[in-house]
Design a protein that fits this description.
The complex is a heterodimer. Chain A is built from no helices and 11 strands. Chain A is mainly β. In chain A, strands 2, 4, 5, 9, 10 and 11 form a 6-stranded mixed β-sheet that branches. In chain A, strands 1-3-8-7-6 form a 5-stranded antiparallel β-sheet, with no helix packed on it. In chain A, strand 9 and strand 10 form a beta hairpin. The termini of chain A are far apart. By secondary structure, chain B is mainly β. The chains are: A mainly beta, B mainly beta. At the A-B interface, strand 5, strand 9 and strand 10 of A face strand 5 of B.
Amino acid sequence: EDKVVQSPLSLVVHEGDTVTLNCSYEVTNFRSLLWYKQEKKAPTFLFMLTSSGIEKKSGRLSSILDKKELFSILNITATQTGDSAVYLCAVEMDNNNDMRFGAGTRLTVKP
Amino acid sequence: NAGVTQTPKFQVLKTGQSMTLQCAQDMNHEYMSWYRQDPGMGLRLIHYSVGAGITDQGEVPNGYNVSRSTTEDFPLRLLSAAPSQTSVYFCASSYSLSSHNEQFFGPGTRLTVL
């Protein structure tokens, strides 16, 4: 059965801390892994990863994929209260055009 | 561009009632999809479409029907609502199947089935 597992489920940090969010997967015919940020409503896209070992970076956020060990991490440095959100990991599959999402990690950044 | 729009924003149904959740996009996207989001479950794909006249099932299609008569619209129908369908529903679109990185989500419809 295809599955995507995120950890931790929730995390509380203080402003300025660095956090690492984890996403592991077991799917058939992997195509890509995507990270989304969901605040109050719809998810917004952060990164798409297709190749192992190549870091994607956007400001204080970065992500990397390990296709051998079947996981990805999302790093956020110098966290701010505006980073508080649910972070979703999703995996696209090639064979049936399906996408599987993890349950998400709820990040709370306290001032 | 309005992006992806969904109506209604909120809906309460009684068990057995039917309704249609509307989704429209004005970006000329080929790929559209419907997800439901439940606490602790993440987003689960219900149905998707790779173009007008073409639809296919996702992970959790039972109890839902879709059609894609135009590129712009992708309605989701609940023929006989059940309490298990209480959820938040998101419609999403992207230019093509291979461009999920450009996937845009609508604002969501919160459905409660009593």
